[in-house]
Amino acid sequence: MQLDIRLPMGLLFLLLGAVLVAFGFFADPVIYAKHSLGHNVNLIWGAVFAAFGAFMLWLAGRAARRAVTENQPAGADGRHE
Amino acid sequence: MLTPVPPVIAAALSWRMPLALRLNVAPIDYVIVCLYFAFVIGIGWVLRKQLRGSADFFESGRSLPAWICALGFIGANLGAQEVIGIAASSAKYGIATAHFYWIGAIPAMVFIGVFMMPFYYGSKARSVPEYLKLRFDEKTRTLNALSFALMTIFSSGISMHALASLLQVIIGLDYNVCIAISGLIVLVYVYSGGLTAAIYNEVVQFFLIALGLLPLVVLGLQDIGGWSGLVSHLDQYAAARDMPGAWSHAWGPLDSPAHNPLGIEWFGVVAGLGFVLSFGYWCTDFLVVQRAMAAKDMNAARLTPIIATFPKLLIPVLVIVPGLVAVALLQRAHGDFSLPAAADGSPDYNMVVPAMLAKYFPNGLLGIGLTALMASFMSGMAGNVTAFNTVFTYDIYQSHLNPGASDRHLVAVGRAATVGGLILCALAAYTARQFNNIMDMVQLVFGFVNAPLFAIFLLGMFWRRATGHGAFYGLLLGTLAALIFHGNTLPFGEPAGLVKGGWMSVRHQFGSSMAQNFWMAIVAFTACFFGTALISLATKPSRSDSELRGLVYSLTAKPRDDRQAAWYARPVPLGLFVIAITLGLNILFW
Fold it and tell me: Hey, how many other C-beta atoms are within 10 angstroms of the C-beta on B573?
């Protein structure tokens, strides 16, 4: 079976999001006043990245579960004739 | 690619910048960039184990779902020219830059999905030049393959040069190191995973570019007083140039070349950009067509370019709004935003995106923005390299040098072509660095070759009487017409010469290089179309009707949409839906 791109992509965005959120917590707030109109964009956009990554992982997981169900021979789960 | 968005090309080519704009990059930003690099290499490594033969390496085994192919279709095109060049164009020409999407892409993408993919995909051709061989003859294929292979090398080299020049300026990275790193990363993942690795990375790059640049739009708009504040600044700017509304309206100012900064009227935009250049690129360029040909079945192949229109409709928000915001910020009295000066002393609009990153992105998010920029350059490079290795292997090597090559041997040749192609790209990058005018000239020559190309595809697919001789000599005639047109016209304010035109005599002057480009395309297409038609009528058909089955519209069974499927899973209703949205956008920003 070919690699589902949503799996590594979800991991990458989750990881990048986590790095941004962590940096958003610890970085000197002065950088936000200087650059991003006072918004802690690292925290906000890190959360967006992480949420997108989690969504991709959920989609990949759902597709994998469906593939397993479709590949199961009839009756294998005991519910079919 | 060089051909796609001709206007942008000028911007992308003018990377002559010993300019001062240094981003304050911190270790956290480098961590983010390195995470991304590790990821793209990892994708190639994982996919390496799944390659079983040349079909997998060059065509992804024709196994990918439509949504992945669609994002690859857009991602391969979302290169440096688009992100940097369109932002620069929107600052220079205003919201009319959106024409490169609304009229310069969407109709052609729907057209190829509905009408042309059945021939590309159904003919089992492995490349666009191979389709030309099946439809016409070997010489037409070889002409197209050679010009395309050269073009991809130069285009990729320009991307490499642009990335290295940009990073040298904004983060102080050594030019040579940057060429080596970007080349090696693309090499590792294309060499390992072939087309699938390139497409998978294009999908990731698309999301990274979209999510990475979106905060720039949000913060820029908030800073300038929202959309109404932006329009108000743009209208003041346009009024000061005696072109009322020219930066905030897409169609209204096109009533006369004097009323808009493009220096062109609506007919030139519709016929030159909306028809010849747009259809010539989106419907015939193997770089993008290759992504659709990797789809798992005919319906997915037809849906690929149509699904790709949705992200294509959204991209202007990411690349045009920053350019417009930059103009508005330059108008503002605070003086808290500036662009470095170009060689002629005017603001260097190529630096819009880096300057806005410097202004709005703090460390952390800056790493994401930088990564998005690098991703855009690398997706353009990888797209060109995968198209190059396929055309070289199938249409040059297998066709002329070693027709009996085994499948395994072809994969080895494809990998060698990837290495050789990237070395040539690096050489092209250094050439661009040393001799900018030579690269401008190369670009121009490709423009001459490409402008008429769509005519032979149009006639080839929809007129069975078109012959190989007609196509080959029609293409040469169209190229010659473009050359003569260029030699006799010149944009206002430009010196006559080989690069800008007027090198034979100046019989007509255009408001801008872009207007000259659009009209040159119209002339070249017309000459090629009628030349091909007349020569075809005067020569014997090169293929019998049975040989043309599956290659020509009137001799091919029409693919029927699955009536049971939802409307959005069928090419025709989905295409009509996206055309309706595009019309709405044009009216909204009229």
Answer: 15
**DSSP string of B97-158?**
GGHHHHTTTHHHHHHIIIIIHHHHHHTT-SSHHHHHHHHT-HHHHHHHHHHHHHHHHHHHHH
> Coil, strand or helix: which one is B263?
coil
Question: Looking at the domain assignment, is residue B552 inside a domain?
Answer: no
| pLDDT above 60 for B6 | no
| CA distance, residue A78 to nearest chain B CA (Å) | 32
- In tens, the pLDDT along B235-266 reads 998 888 888 888 888 888 888 888 888 888 88
Determine, for residues B365 and A12 on separate chains, whether the beta-carbon distance falls below 8 Å. no
Instruction: Give a yes or no: residue B523 inside a domain.
Output: no
pLDDT at B19 over 70: no
| Cβ atoms A8, B43 nearer than 8 A | yes
Token pair 């090198």: residue = B503
Do the domain assignments include residue B384? yes
Q: Are the beta carbons of A12 and B35 separated by less than 8 Å? A: yes
B119 touches B550 (CB < 8 A): yes
| Number of neighbouring beta carbons within 10 Å of residue B177 | 12
Mean pLDDT over each residue of chain A, to the nearest integer: 86
B417-422 CB contacts, 8 Å cutoff, 24+ apart: B417/B388, B417/B389, B417/B392, B417/B393, B418/B187, B418/B190, B418/B191, B418/B385, B418/B389, B419/B187, B419/B191, B421/B152, B421/B153, B421/B156, B421/B385, B421/B388, B421/B389, B421/B392, B422/B156, B422/B183, B422/B186, B422/B187, B422/B385
Chain B contact for A71 (CB, 8 A cutoff): no
What confidence score (pLDDT) does residue B466 get?
A: 93
Average pLDDT over residues B209-228: 92
pLDDT in tens, B52-70: 888 888 888 888 889 999 9
For B338: left if phi > 0, alpha if psi spans -120 to 50, otherwise beta; the answer is: beta
A60 interface with B at CB cutoff 8 Å: no
Residues of A in contact with B211 (CB under 8 A): 13, 45, 48-49, 52
Average pLDDT of chain B, as a whole number: 86
| Cross-strand pairs, B483 | none
Output the pTM of the full model: 0.88
Total domains present in chain B: 1
CATH number at residue B406: 1.20.1730.10
CA distance to partner chain B, nearest, from residue A30 (Å): 10
CB-based contact (8 Å) between A51 and chain B?
no
- Is B278 part of a structural domain of the chain? yes
Q: Note the pLDDT of residue B398.
A: 93
CA distance A62 to A80: 22
The whole-angstrom separation of Cα B590 and Cα B581 is: 14
Range of the domain at B19: 6-432
| pLDDT, position B443 | 63
Residues of B in contact with A32 (CB under 8 A): 362
Contact: B31, A19; criterion CB under 8 Å: yes
